[in-house]
Design a protein that fits this description.
Layout: E1 7-9, E2 21-23
Antiparallel strand pairs: 1-2
Length: 65
């Protein structure tokens, strides 16, 4: 996979209960499949929960991978 590919969350949110994101097109070397699987872990928190390190909207930083 290329190191210069990226992903980003789309803001502002169209609906408060949905997160949308984009992923640059890429292919794995030697694999012609046109399908990828994205796995994520979901944590639910009360709407009254103040955002903190464990309870926040998703984000990603290449610097912390």
């Amino acid at each position: 996979m290329q190191d210069d590919s990226s992903s980003a969350f789309i803001t502002p949110r169209v609906e408060p209960d949905k997160l949308q994101f984009t992923v640059d097109a890429f292919r794995f070397l030697g694999n012609d499949a046109s399908l990828i699987y994205i796995t994520c872990y979901l944590r639910a928190a009360a709407t009254t929960q103040v955002p903190d390190a464990m309870n926040k909207a998703c984000s990603y930083s290449k610097a912390t991978k």
